[in-house]
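[Backbone geometry]
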Amino acid sequence: MDELECTLESPRDDDRFWYAIQTRPRHEKRVHEGLRSLGFWSFLPMVEQVHQWSDRRQKVQVPLFSRYLFIQSLYNPEVHQAVIKLPGVNGFVGASKQALPIPNSEIATIQLLLSRRIPVEPHPFLKVGQRVRCRGGALDGLEGILVSKKKDYSVVVSIELLQRSVSVHINGYDLEPVREPRPDTGKLFALGECSAPCF
């Protein structure tokens, strides 16, 4: 068994972290399949949209975060090289030539929303605002930023590293404020469409 195979062989949960990978435009599915073929735990959030053509409307599955997907893995030079060699990969999202891990809670929130088939849609990234927690129902425990638009309330859930967000309607849910703000991880410098350098 070579070094890469050892790296990918079901590491302990406390050794694995989620990392974001930026792809070329419209290469998310191809990269996702490539990562799976190498044995990585890959997560490509998909949502259904209705596309309108001149003669018809059709429901299609599209990536929730255009040009991004996630892997849960150890991170070392062997893993880095294996990933960036895949066709369509721009690189890991990070800073100072180091991939930055994404908190498990952020990925778990996106997975929860998709697994419950709750309608979500891309939303402008919000860094500041009232952070709330849903109580009761299918969204019990969900945390995010409360926003209001024409008396329609939503909670915005964010992937901090990517500076990408999604919103979910929460009219009728009980909300409570989250009193302890999460620590700021510092400013990340932009490179193209990526909120942090990709390498």
